[in-house]
Automatic annotation (TrEMBL):
Keywords, in A-Z order: ATP-binding, DNA damage, DNA recombination, DNA repair, Helicase, Hydrolase, Membrane, Nucleotide-binding, Transmembrane, Transmembrane helix
Membrane-crossing residue ranges in chain numbering: 52-71
Protein name (Swiss-Prot/TrEMBL): ATP-dependent DNA helicase
Record-stated family: Belongs to the helicase family.
Length: 185
């Protein structure tokens, strides 16, 4: 059973994926509110139309529950320690780069667990490898690709060694320059 709020979020993302719009969404919800069900529904619908979806999660059991889910560090070659200068080890012309050029949707669960620098590095990576995109998309987050992040800020936040509360809050995705583009659902 899907609630009206879930259906509204699903329909919004599907409109963007099927249209010519770009979109960056954050699906906020506490544990057990069927976020993974909605992600799998989105993923199945997009794949049924012959499009490509990458489903990842920051850690834990979530990748096992996602259709073709993987740990984000594995999929995107994220370094263990990230900072504002981190980049992904994805070379232009590699198989992963070719895959990223063709994707129609990225779904990333448990997003608040990782540092904002992971998402900023993905943004930079996509800007670097997707060179054929239109000029209009060059200033859009993730080079105009549709990205759905999700999670709960009341659960585990990024771990900052010897960090203060302020350091931890500064490391979350909602402290990133990308957040101003996010449509929170």
């Amino acid at each position: 059973m899907v609630t009206m709020e879930q259906k509204k979020a699903y329909d919004r993302v599907m409109r963007v994926v099927n249209g010519s719009e770009e979109g960056f969404f954050f699906r906020y919800g506490h544990g057990g509110c069927s976020k993974i069900f909605i992600y799998n529904l989105m993923s199945a619908k997009v794949r049924s139309r012959g499009k490509i979806v990458l489903t990842v999660a920051s850690s834990g059991i979530a990748p096992l529950l996602l259709i073709n889910g993987r740990i984000a560090h594995s999929r995107f070659k994220i370094l263990i320690t990230v900072d504002e200068y981190s980049t992904y080890n994805i070379r232009q012309g590699s198989l992963l780069a070719k895959l990223l050029i063709k994707i129609d949707l990225i779904i990333w669960d448990e997003a608040p667990m990782l540092s904002r620098y992971c998402y900023e590095a993905l943004d930079i990576c996509l800007r670097d490898i997707i060179t054929h995109a239109s000029i209009a998309n060059c200033e859009r987050p993730f080079r105009g690709n549709v990205v759905v992040l999700g999670g709960d800020f009341r659960q585990i936040l990024p771990i900052i060694t010897r960090g203060s509360r302020q350091d931890i809050v500064h490391a979350t995705i909602n402290s990133s320059y990308l957040w101003e583009f996010a449509e929170v659902m």
